[in-house]
């Protein structure tokens, strides 16, 4: 019966797959009622003994698996008492793949367990002159290997957790040949399917080139009147020449504003104050190894417009291109005399009524991936300016009315003085007449006095 059981166990092969460079555990569990003390021997086909332990407790390692610093293989001693003689292998290499045998001897009887270890690895190869990272336009090959390769297996690829279907398949889909670009950078994962088993491994693919803006036709958002940095950043390992930031919808004119950095790879441009004319499409470009790299972007300008509607002040958040905006949020912030900040409830919508005529209002516009940008206005500043203007107009009107009234009185006085002057000149032309007039006047006064005395 023991012979039949041993023969049956030997006919079964357990498959284990480990990723290159990682740790793997090859299982070997004693199923007898009494497993201790036991002699355990781990061996590999054509490689001899890997590790063994005598029933006395002495342990030995194969020469290919041990060095003075550390051993890549070991059996956890704490699990021996439970009959677990599994083998741990660290720092997996492609040469570690193959068929392993765990032999357990208890009181003269032995059982064998066979484990097929497959090593899966994803590696990339590039034609880049830079040994570490390929550059835009370089030919890159991403290869998926399983050693030994399982018969009938099918390979599927994903890029950044999204299915990727190669245009051309080689070696039954084990390799993908691409031309490096920003769209192909990220985590490449190959999944090997056979029957109900699925084994996966990944590799990171970094690509040097223009890292900001991160992709073609990136939309950037800036508030009207604010300072803004137009990005044009290359990978730090590159030293581009003939770098240019230009506005595409203005006749390809060079965009001349001061640089944001003095580094050789950061050629971003600073706009000191955003104006409506800054809205539009731009291009960042540079030459590396006689290869011209470029990336386009669009600057979207945001502003807040104030208006009156049925006696209510309305604030509207307006963007030169709102195509990516899915929602608008308004936040009102005010300050008391001690400078304490008070934040009001969030309001939603592109246009909102303003009840509080003080503090600041911020419009935050969001897209499918979160916040795109914001723009802020000082409501109390606008109200104050409006009030000062009204007071000034009222004061000027009163001054004009008062000056006009004084001018009219002055003209009347001058007219009366002129009339008296003219009449006096007419009388002086006839002296005799003047004597008669005075005589008559004197007689009249004398008569009046006599009448009073009587």
UniProtKB/TrEMBL annotation:
Signal peptide from the UniProt entry: none
Protein name: Ig-like domain-containing protein
Pfam families attached to this UniProt entry: V-set (PF07686)
Keywords: Membrane, Transmembrane, Transmembrane helix
Aminoacyl-tRNA synthetase keyword on record: no
GO MF term list: MHC class II protein binding; protein tyrosine kinase binding
UniProt-listed InterPro entries: Ig-like_dom (IPR007110), Ig-like_dom_sf (IPR036179), Ig-like_fold (IPR013783), Ig_sub (IPR003599), Ig_sub2 (IPR003598), Ig_V-set (IPR013106)
Species lineage: Eukaryota, Metazoa, Chordata, Craniata, Vertebrata
Gene3D superfamilies from the UniProt entry: Immunoglobulins (2.60.40.10)
Stored PANTHER family: MICROFIBRIL-ASSOCIATED GLYCOPROTEIN 3, T-CELL SURFACE GLYCOPROTEIN CD4
Transmembrane region(s): 400-418
Domain (Ig-like) ranges: 21-116, 137-206, 213-294
Top-rank taxon: Eukaryota
Gene Ontology terms: biological process: interleukin-15-mediated signaling pathway; positive regulation of ERK1 and ERK2 cascade; T cell activation
One cellular-component annotation, GO: membrane raft
